[in-house]
Amino acid sequence: MDYKKLIIESGKKLIDSGFTIETWGNISAKDEETGLVYLTPSGMDYCNCTTDDVVVCNLDGEIVEGHRKPTIETELHLSVYRNRPEVKAVVHTHPIYSTVFSCMGEGIPLLIDEAAQALGAPVKTANYALPGTKELAEECIKALGKEANACLLQSHGAVCVGESMEAAFKVANVLEVTAQIYQLIKSTGKDFVPLSEENIKAMAEFAKYKYGQGK
To answer: What does the record list as coiled-coil region(s) (predicted)?
Structure first.
């Protein structure tokens, strides 16, 4: 796989999806064979980036290829890979509805079938820490735990992970839709009818083992 090309295409997708604006947000992918991580550069327009702008480093953060400064959230990305070996892609977004809940310090429950299938566990909001700091990376890891595929960063945005870039973007999509639905429910002054733990588990297993072709 051409990981540099994947990063460039994913950066443009991040903008086109409306998950961030300007140069906010960042993306990475891990090559399972080499253990190397490919990252978006810091503060550059994703629509104008080329494969030469992609930065490659190892899990210790040592840059092995690239002349650009990597994303300020490099430690956050690397911390996810070190703590969740199954993760192969991390997408840090700044979506509107999800960020509303992050600003309130609230999590997002698995209130729809799609969330139960894709998000892994109820989405928590990490305690606030300044962008680009080791503290933020640590809080992100705590909020993700070992099962969740997404967490919110207080007053900042969201972190979505997956076993592929496609999976990570699916998580980002489902998270934002779920947040929007949750916000609309709250605006009625009422509460949602929760899914049972049994049905949440069934939905997760359905998505993993039955949904789609070849399963």
So the answer is: none
